[in-house]
Structure formats: C-alpha cells, structure tokens
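#structure-requests
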Amino acid sequence: MKTPQYLQSVDENARSYGTLSYNRRSRCWTIKGDPCVTELAKRLFPGCEGRGRGVARFTAHRRIIGDLNWLMLRYPLTVKEADRSRWEAALEEARAYAIRREESLNAPQYVSPPEGEFGGELMQFQREGLAFLLNNRRCLLADEMGLGKTVQALAFLASLDQYPALIVVPPHLVRNWQSETERFLKPDGSLRVHVIRGLKPYPLPEADVYLVHYLLLRGWKGELDKYAFGAVIFDEIQELRHAGTEKYSAASLLAATSENVIGLSGTPIYNHGGEIWNVVNILDFHCLGDWESFSREWCYGYGSNIVAKPELLGEHLRREGLMLRRTKDEVLSELPPKRRLVQYIDFDDRVYARLMEPMAEKLAFLREADSPSRRALLEDEICQLQRQATGVAKAPYVSAFVGALLEGGERVLLMAHHHAVMDIYKKELKPYHPVFITGRETDAQKAAAVEAFMSGKTNLCAVSLRSASGLNLQRANCVVFGELDWSPAVHSQAEDRAHRIGQKDSVLCYYLVAPSGSDSEMQDALGLKVSQFTGLMGDEAPKAQDVLLRESEAREHLKRLVARLEAAYRPKEP
C-alpha cells in the first residue's frame, strides 16, 4: 500500500517559513516561524498550543506527526539538525501506522500473543482485537460485555512485554483483575503483582503489574505518573466520562506518561454522546479537538454535549483507529450457545466478621453434640450462617457488577438464595426497577414479575435459586449467580431459565465468587475453575444415582467447611 499523500516528504529546497524542533522535557514539536503559519496551526489543530507570536507546539504522537507533515507540505519548515533523525524516525512511524490502519480497515488482521508469555487461547475475533490494540497503542476497546475485553487487554500486555504496567479498575473488580492477571500473564509463575492500597502514597515495591482502583487516583495524583509504566489500562473507562474531577485529572496525567494507553468499556457513553470526548481525550489528548470545537462541530453548538450524528462520530473513531467495537450478534458464530465465566468479586470483611459473631457459640454446641442427627443439624445451621454472611458481605459488589451489565443493555437474571441478600439487591438496584421471584410472592405477583421481564418493562429479574423451576425467562442473555448452591443441577436448572428453545443469543452465565467465606468450598463442590468458559458442570439432566452421589459429595464438602471453621474458631489454650 502506498504512503498517503499527506505523509510524503517535504521539499527541502522550497522556501522555509520557520523552524521545527523537539522539546525533550515536554515531548512536543515546536514551530517557530512566520505568524501566518503558527496562527494557521492554532486554528486548524485545537490540540496545538503556544503562547505569543510565532510559536506553536504539537504533542509528539503518530496522528499529530501526520497533521504536522501535512501542514509542512504547504508551509515548509527547516528541521533543526539536532532533531532531524528524530523527525525522520517519527515520520516513518507515522507512515507505518497509517498504512497498517488502512490495511486493517480493508482486511482485518489477526495476532496471537507470544507463547510462554500468555496462558490462554484467544478466539478469532479476540485475535483481531489484539491486532487492533497493537496497531493503535492509544485506543478504546468497546466490545459488548461478555466478549473478553479483559483477556484481550492482558494478551496486549503479554505481547508488548513492556513492564511495569498499571491497570486502573473499579473497586469491585480489583480481586478479579488480580486473579486474571496472575492466571494469564507469565505462566511460569514469575509475574509480580502489587495491589495499591490507601489514599496516602508510599514507595511502591518492585512489580510487573500494579493494580489501583479509581477511588484512589486522587490520592496518588502526581505520584503514579512518576513511574515509567510501559502501558496503562483503564478498565470500565466510562468512570472517566466526567471531566473536572481530581480522579479525571490524575488519570489524564497518567495517560500522558505512557506510550501505550488502552481503555476498556462496553458502555463508553452513558447519558450523552458528548461524554465520549472526555473518555477519548484521556486516551489521545485532543484527538477530537478541544471541547469548544468538538461541541461546536460534532454537537448542537458551543457547550452542547448531545452529538448531532452519533453514527458519523462512531465511524470517525473506528476509521481513525481510536475505537473497536464488536457486538455479540457480529461474532455469534464464534460463541457457544451457553458460556460460563467464574469471576472473583470483592466483599466487605467487616460485615462478614460481624455476621459470623454467633459462629463460636454454634461450634461449641457442635462439639457437645451427642448424636449424629444432632451433629448433622448443627452442621447445616453453621453452613447456612456462613453462606448468608458470605452472600450479604458481597451483595453490594454483586449489585455494582449487575448494574454495569444493565447499563450495557444486558437483560439479566440475578440468582441468589437468602432473603437478606435479595433485600440488599432490592435496595442497591432500585434505579433499574427490578422484579423478584423469591418464594415470598403470591402466584399473581410471580406471574406479574415474569410478564414485566418478558415484555421488556424491566431488564432485571432476581430469582431464588430454589424457585427457578418451571420459569420461562428466555429473554435474558445474562445469568448472574450472586450466591452459590451445593448442587450443580440447581445451577444448570437456573441457567436453563434463559437458555431455552427460542433463545437465539449466546447466554453468558457469571458465577461471582468471593475470595473468602463459604464460596471456596462450594466452588470446589461444583467443580468450578476460575475463568473457564464451558464444560464446567455438564448440561445433561442428571440420573437418579448421580443425584444421590452428588448429594453425598456435597455433604462431604459441607463437613470440610465445618471442619475448617472449627479449626479457625477453636478456643485458645489457657
């Protein structure tokens, strides 16, 4: 493919209108020349800065280099001798980038991460996503939820091999990112991950990957940008859709210090199209112009944040290599009918500890139990106490996760067991107008809830794990297990409320697992492995003997859970 015309070499013998030099401290190219050139540069390129007459500055990255060269074709500039080799290298990089971008638009490219650096396999559309990220080092991956943005971002880090990297995530996803990072990067076990804690900065230990959540950015403003991060990834970058906050300012400083900045979001635009300017401006400063010019040209006038033609803006972002978005419909042929994803979710340690206070007394009764039946009854009570404590402690984080799915337009069945957990969901998810089928409703209320969900009056139906039998809720395309049951058959039955005849979508079933509490033992009982997608529990109806066998196995897991609790709560020797 030929070099684009705007990136052709400038005639060195033509009349010069000024000089071009590179400022290493601010990492920008500076024009000092005739006012007609600098004034035109400032009018044409809103990202162009420079105080006083005859001075204009351009941030040094590939898109700007192309614009600057285009300007020099009309108004030639003399590149200072000390910066000539740097300019020629930057121009070559800009040419290669432009050619790759055109090639990827005409025929998608596919890349696999290097063997030995990445511990997983990518689907074809994910390999296309990796190629896009590698060709466009400052961009937004806006795939719909459930298409594996996390794994594509980690494949990007593995392919770059430019550590340390920083990953900025929402608070409720810190544990999951830590787990996924340790699983996929450097399978030989040599990866070092550090989770940044607290608002007060401290000297960071050496690590390959640092994790920090958005609420801490304001405390670390001016500190994290001092580290030489090879890449910065902003998960759920719609968290930065509002400018003018300390969080946004800190993120902007971070993005300016790295050559590789990737944003991930299935919902980059929440309320108004103008929010995309704030998001993309983090990734590539002023690539959409400054706010005034963007709102004037793309929206309905100065200061307006309603994009006049969203489809035109989306096409521009894709054409310029700023955004890649695939929907499930577009890649449905690559997806199995039903996918299972186990994901770590955070939980409140203090709430869990408070709810577990009666445990010591119950365990004392268990130690004094004089019959197998009495002991079995107490074991069940102990298990229920810990299960409820686990469910309540993680319920707010489950709610945040489900809220993100709903904001992305997903239709969700939320599964849980305890009424206390359902009550938290009802409070936390009230803005989404959920309906509930928990066993506490009358037949008429249950029928009304089904009708409301199936007719589209709400996109969220919360269902008790043991109340899902016989329900037809195939409008759902996501099933979220906020709590777990001992029985694989109960989960399969719950999944099948959505995965039924007539369902044309690929149903994604999320198992949200807390790092502590009862989930670990129950996860083992179900045979769930973190981040595996398919074939976890089987989809065939269990035979009678299988049911009896699994009930026996569940009892053994329950006993192990109680044994661990006995060890943890054993009275100390005097």
